[in-house]
Amino acid sequence: MVGKKRKKRRSKSTLGNHQRGWLWGRHAVLETLRAGRWRPYELLICDELLEAALLKEILQRCDDDQIPLGFTDANGLEDLVRARDHQGVAARMPEFPLKDFEELVSELPERPFLLILDRIQDPYNFGSILRSADLFGVDGIIIGDREQAGISSHVARSSSGAVNYLNITQVESLPAAAQQLQSAGIELISASEKAETSPAELDLTQGAAIIIGNEGAGVASELMEQCTTLCAIPQTGHVDSLNAAVAAGILCYEVQRQRRSS
Q1: Cβ-contact 54, 30 below 8 angstroms
Q2: What's the rounded Cα separation, in Å, for the pair 250 and 255?
Q3: 259 vs 54: CA distance, rounded Å
Q4: How far apart are CA 260 and CA 20, in angstroms?
Q5: Are 99 and 140 in contact (CB under 8 A)?
């Protein structure tokens, strides 16, 4: 059984981080408003720091979507989000709307491209992976509910708002989810330093799920054993491994390159 992460019942739950549920920065907030999937509880802005066109768009979108809007100064925003890089805008957010796993699988296209993230703990790595996933057309992202960074303000900001355009699901068992994908004809692929095949030598034009492992421990052995294909990203330098987000970006690019060529 794949299962979903059970959410605790709370009244008006907010995005969980030490900034009390606030998301800030122009790119992150504006893309959230534009996508319309993750509706803020309220927006707070310093209009003196915003360009006229940007201010007009924020005002219009808040009016259209009936999002409460308040005004403050730069120091007020800094005190609120506990950061100086607010760029004049902050949004108080609910928890991110995760996708149901079964629903995600049922809506996949004929040749889906998925990412399975195995215990990515650094929120900046997680956000960078999400940014690459949106840029290279990933159809869905599957994360576990243990030792995994959640969707926080840091993750959303690191993704430059790309989180709003991705189908992300969280499951209790990544191996069980991987097995279900395999049963649906989707190939499981993982990078491994022991592999002798480069990503460019693989056929990535069919349904594929690429597994990105933990920053320190890599892909869990149980997941690695389920993979039908292993590949090694060619390296010529002196260090023996790539950052998880960089590796994900390279592999996502290779999938898109092959699919465009075909």
Answers
A1: yes
A2: 9
A3: 36
A4: 43
A5: yes
Does residue 58 sit in helix, strand or coil? helix
Cβ proximity of 28 and 160 under 8 Å: yes
DSSP for 187-213, please give it.
EEEEE-TT----GGGS--SSSEEEEE-
Query: Under 8 Å CB-to-CB from 27, ≥6 apart: which residues?
Result: 157, 160, 161
Contact 247, 219 (CB under 8 A): no
| Residue 110 tokens, joined | 């004929």
For the CA atoms of 142, 131, 17, 219, the dihedral, rounded to the nearest 10 degrees, stands at 40
Q: Which residues pair with 42 in a beta bridge?
A: 92
Whether pLDDT at 256 is above 90? yes
Q: What is the DSSP string of 81-97?
A: HT-STTTTEEEE-----
Alpha carbon 123 to chain centroid, angstroms: 10
With 0-12 / 13-18 / 19 or more C-beta atoms within 10 angstroms meaning exposed / middle / buried, residue 223 is: buried
Beta-bridged to residue 140, according to DSSP, are 114
Most distant CA pair in the chain, distance: 58
Give the pLDDT confidence of 58-92 residue by residue, as tens digits: 999 999 999 999 999 999 999 989 889 999 999 99
Cβ neighbours around 227 below 10 Å, total: 21
Edge-first strand order for the sheet with 229-231 is: 168-171, 140-144, 113-117, 208-212, 187-191, 229-231
Q: What angle do CA 199, 200, 203 make, to 5 degrees?
A: 85
Summarised one tens digit per residue, pLDDT across range 99-136 is: 999 999 999 999 999 999 999 999 999 999 999 999 99
Distance between the two ends of the chain, CA-based, in angstroms?
A: 36
Query: Would you state the structure tokens that stand for residue 195, as one six-digit string?
Result: 């592999």
Question: Encoding tokens for residue 43?
Answer: 């927006």
